[in-house]
């Protein structure tokens, strides 16, 4: 997809290749059939998602980190580690769903089509995950401040 986009870019990398690069380096699939949990991610309602719904997350939501840069950063974690997520059904093959999504991505697609997802929020990932942890904006940026 990168190679196919290059001839159309007029010498400057376009948004589609930005999206592909971000997904390659920092992508994750969120396997979840629970529409409410997916909506909480999309709305940046981190404390409500990761703290108040933590038991449901363990039962209904799985993160599959694909991005090699995120996996490398997880070796020495820091507060701002964030994936860019694509949502998929846990009932179907995750790889096939990602391939289907990539196959239909428009040439003018933007990285904003992927939802930010703070890695450190997943219940049980870090030792200090109490209620106050989920109020720390270094980890959980509010909507509009996410990079």
Task: Report a brief summary of the structure.
With 147 residues, the protein is of the alpha+beta class.
Describe this structure in words.
This protein has 147 residues and is of the alpha+beta class. The chain is built from 7 helices and 4 strands, in the order ααβαααβαβαβ. A 4-stranded mixed sheet has the order 2-1-3-4. It is globular.
List the helices and strands and how they pair.
Blueprint: H1 2-5, H2 15-26, E1 27-32, H3 35-42, H4 46-52, H5 54-60, E2 61-65, H6 68-73, E3 82-88, H7 94-104, E4 115-118
Parallel strand pairs: 1-3
Antiparallel strand pairs: 1-2, 3-4
Q: What would you call the structural class?
A: alpha+beta
Q: What percentage of amino acids are in beta strands?
A: 5-15%
Overall average pLDDT: 90
Widest β-sheet, arrangement of strands: 2-1-3-4
Number of strand segments: 4
Share of helix, binned: 25-40%
**What is the H/E string?**
HHEHHHEHEHE
For the terminal residues, how far apart are their CA atoms?
A: 24 Å
Largest sheet: 4 strands, mixed
- Structural shape: globular
Please mark out the parts with pLDDT under 50 across 5 or more consecutive residues, or reply none: none
Count, helices: 7
Radius of gyration, in Å, reads 16 Å
